[in-house]
Design goal:
By secondary structure, the chain is an all-beta fold. The chain is 0% helix and 52% strand.
Length: 124
């Protein structure tokens, strides 16, 4: 049974940092593409970052480039999102998602499994 469990969200002031984690189980984590998405109140799902199975290739949305870094530890079956220089516009529910095979894709419909999300709130 595939399970993705996010953690690390919270309330932080503008300019602060948070590190999100996503613990994976029930599948061969090291062979899956992994991504972070977010959904702000009243808005649709937005792609944030993607990392290749081996961790050698990463992709970030323009809105977070230079501030957020996606990474993974395949030995620990864990995905991370380091978020620095946070802005109020980053306030959202953050989800991790897994995709079996293929290549980089920012379309949420291409993803097989999703976590329940972790809330990030950035105050001004």
């Amino acid at each position: 049974q595939v399970q993705l469990v996010e953690s690390g969200g919270g309330l932080v002031q503008s300019g602060g940092s948070l590190r999100l984690s996503c613990a994976a189980s029930g599948f061969t984590f090291s062979t899956y593409w992994m991504s972070w998405f977010r959904q702000a109140p009243g808005k649709g799902l937005e792609w944030v970052s993607t990392i290749s199975p081996g961790g050698y290739n990463t992709y970030h949305a323009d809105s977070v480039k230079g501030r957020f870094t996606i990474s993974r530890d395949n030995a620990k079956n864990t995905l991370y999102l380091q978020m620095n220089s946070l802005k109020p516009g980053d306030t959202a529910l953050y989800y991790c998602a897994s995709k079996d095979g293929g290549s980089y894709n920012a379309d949420p419909q291409r993803y097989d499994s999703w976590g329940q999300g972790t809330q990030v709130t950035v105050s001004s």
